[in-house]
Protein 1
Amino acid sequence: MAYAFLESSITGRAGTDEEYWKGLADGELRLPRCAACKKWMWPAHHRCGACGSWELEWIKQEPVGTVYSWTRTWYAFDRVHERAADVPYVIVVAEVACGACLLGVLKGREDGLKIGAKVRGIIEPPSEKSKGYPSIRWALA
Amino acid sequence: MSKFRGNTAIVGIGQTPYYKRGTSPDPEMKLALRAIVAACEDAGISPQDIDGFVSYGSERNDGQKLMAALGTRELKFGGLVWTHGGGIPGALGLAANAIIAGQADIVVVYRAMAELGGQRLRVAVWQNDTPSQYLVNGLDAPAQTCAIRSQRMLEHDGVPRSTMKALAQACYYHARNNPAAMGHNITLDDDTYDNARWISEPYRLFDCSRENDAGAAIIMVSAERAKDMRHKPAYLLSAPMGCYGEWGFGEFNQRPFGATSGFQSVARRLWAESGYEPDDVDVVQVYENMTGMAVAALIDHGFCTVENAGEVLTYKNLIAPNGRLPVNTSGGNIAEGFIHGMGLVPEAVRQIRGDSTNQVPGAALSLMTGGPGDSMVSSALLGSIETL
């Protein structure tokens, strides 16, 4: 399939998470681990620093986790101005089963938001707010 | 025995005034030149004698672009330390290493910023290091990424919020005595701090550093050369840079996370190389992009623990001249002005010289910590001749 987010590709850091976005575009949360030693690696990188393998495999994960930390943003910052009308909005860092901490904008109720609270990920299609990328949003379970 | 410890010194400091962002009468490169020339005048040397240029982060005024205006005779060394504000003390270390290795004799370390070009400082300093994971999820500015760290420090690790307020109020207290500070006329009482608008929780307005146009520079030479110069030298005792293996570009996956700004390994090497420990330090310029990050940096350096941070990091303890741990005695990034943290370096030197506007009496050991939470960090301990 054609992945729309590739049309609006954002560059920065290692640039190794294309498969993550493809997973979300396919409606799945897929996270990388080393194909040789099976060590989870997030953020993804080009090589496994533990065993030296150059191969990653992307494994489907249940999009559930707990709140690791969060912030409620009250200011429409320069490069995320598409969300100006949403201010204040909450950004959650959620820890999922394999240990990866993933960002997502909170969806739904804020009551009960605290570190350790259970969250479920909802995958949303590309939008202007998410800069043409599919995204995962976390909702308090 | 360290080949580094005490073998170089800062002998000149120079700064332009701080301007409200976007209002500098001079373009950025001229601000860099004005700061460098001022540092040379302070040191009593000719700008033509500088043979090394060092900076950090996204500094765009490379030494070779400045040569014609300085009358440089020969450029022998140049370098930019990686990362953002985390690299400032590391830049002092790079300059010192060049001098100790005999690659250069008189090295300037400098930073200049002006928003005249239209780009906000908070964007410029990121150097396009913002990954898709951030921008897709509404995350852009350092205020937000730091907020996520500090929220965990407060909520999970239990460091009290009072530490953040104490730090902000100490900065503004010091700015009251510093006529050059942008926050000179502001009184940050409890009401003003507590009721300021939210930026990104847990940060309100006064938890966040400013953005200004200005330049700052320091001149570094060998300890041997420093002896005969005009000012009391501020010797560089240690300036390690780095981080441990699970830090780096973690996008919130660094461990540990929360009540740390990534300095544990750097602090350990700083104390080991210098031969001193936190209790020996007289005054600290702690880089506060945001208050909570500075609190974590002080914990990392061993000035307090997660458990006793609330008792140690009080307003009374953080102010000069009589506090137990005076910090940011010129007002710091929050209350004096912010050009990517570089203004903290000349103040660390003034404390050794004895001419700060908030002088700590008899200050002999003066610490400056780099941008907290950066993917790589650094710290520098300066000392008077008695500390060698």
Protein 2
Amino acid sequence: MTRPAAVGLGIVVLGALAVAPTSAQSAKGAPTYNKDVAPILHRSCAGCHRPSQVAPMSLLTYQDARPWARAIKAKVRDRGMPPWFADPQYGKFANDRSLTPAEIDVLARWADAGAPQGSGPAPAPPRFSEAGWSHPSGRPPDLVIELPIDWKIQADGELPNFNLYTPLPFNETKLVAATQVLPGNFEATHHITTAVRNLPPGTVLGRGPAWPGGPITDYVPVPAKEGVQVVNTGDLAVEEDEEDGGGFGAYIPGAGVRVARPGQARTIRGDRFRYIRWNLHYQATGRPETARPSIGVWWEDGRLLNVERAARMGDQISESQPIIAGQRPRINRGAGSGVNPLLAPIPPNASNWTVTGIAAFQDDVTLWGITLHMHLRGKDVTYVLTYPDGREEVLLRVPNYDFNWQLPYEFAEPLKVPAGSTVKAIGRYDNSAKNRMNPAPNKEVYWSEQSWDDMFLTSVRYTVDKLERRSQTFTQGQGQN
Amino acid sequence: MTDRRVLTLLAAVAMGAPSSTQAQLRRQPAGAGQPKVDIVQSVGCAERRDGGAETWWLGRASDPRVSAPGAFNLKQVEEARSAALGANLFQLVGVADFLDAEGLLRTGRRAEFTSAETANASGQLQAGRKVLVKGPLVEVDGQKRINLISVISLAERCE
């Protein structure tokens, strides 16, 4: 099911379950909105359920929430909302928005009691930027980078994933404390990812098809004219460097602003990479749409203690076969795609296609969180830490991966890991008809950015302990905004 | 000469190949300087010794050669097939994914979320085989260990 279909169904269900706007009679001892319900909704729901966000209705105020009380009860009871997919047996996470049984009980009894508001003043809803920025401080971004064009989205049909490139507005290494991608059109946007990259070798930025056979547009890499010297090496350098140019994050349902921990920042390598690659995936809504996404950047504030990095899992085992680089050829299936040996390819109707990626730490590090990305065949993922003495610890298990909610997992407590440890990401794919998300069980599934193919991008975010600074200030140019 | 340089030089001699390119492949985070431990590769004989069913060793192992994270490539595997064995002994840890499914399920909490049908166990680590291994090399209480990130079986018999 596509995300709009899922959201649409949610609206229908919620609509059918909505509380009739009658006077709210409070049963004696029943929870009230002001005292009991608002803190839950504000903490776990308001990030999406507010105006101009992806959720179909706001739950910021009593007036907003009351008509939906019974629907809220139904959704939280079946754990459909808030979206959270980590198995509670393994690990604790700071961004866990799931509700406790006691909180679910409060919402259910509140609905059963007729959704009373209670006495006293209504609690103030959390503050959010009217422009849609979600930095916890309420502060607007220091720099906003907009896609320079309004992208036109057709009314019907399946739309491929594609890349546009725009120049990076700075040419030095920058430290960022927070980033956010706003889609410019929530309903028509499936997801947007950004990366700081160079153009593919032999190309220049020009005008051409957005994808093979796609509409003609600016901001695509086109072959350089004969005789024109092109000075770029593509992203070959990325292959040599554990941390590449970085990126400004992504827009995906359920993920808002990405904020580094206090004292931490991420690097954006403007010294090595010249462009922002916007990976755009839109979905038809039944009517023509336009979208102009933008990126918000909050600079590191001068109190840097350490730089956050990402360790990617190297591909090692696919369906019980060891991966040997070059053993199976990569097949180019269009810009930005190719057959990864890890998924080479997933056969039709395979219901448990399993891959394992492994990363090693060569220094003492502190782990802060986990990211993962699969597509529609993604079934489950487990992260296992192996200490140098051979002990294993399960860091995260996502038993029911959902392409529509690609959440990061931030450890509630950072994890100190000694040099010589490894982390394994074990992912399974279901290309059978039993997978209700599967658009084509009878087709082979290749590695590509298109949703009808699949990916296995897994990483752990960490800092290197020996690089931890103490009360050291760091200054950088702030003149780009 | 530092210990690290000695290690790299010895590894180069042992493998009969120049090591400079390999050494440069180490992917340390920018600004992180020399790593505390190296990722190495070695060819040897997979052995079980005392200490339990999942205690594995790499016996008659070649001198460790600094390697890069990620999968081996075809050239490295072909070179390893004809590489001479050595006199080192490394304990192997993190073996689960390189055993058979039964061995994997005996490890840690794997059986809680894995079955014999879904275990992604490569089966490359079997006693008596000549194997090429890769992983960070650590030393604990005088015993050198490799925490495995890759294992390739080179031959049924180790000679």
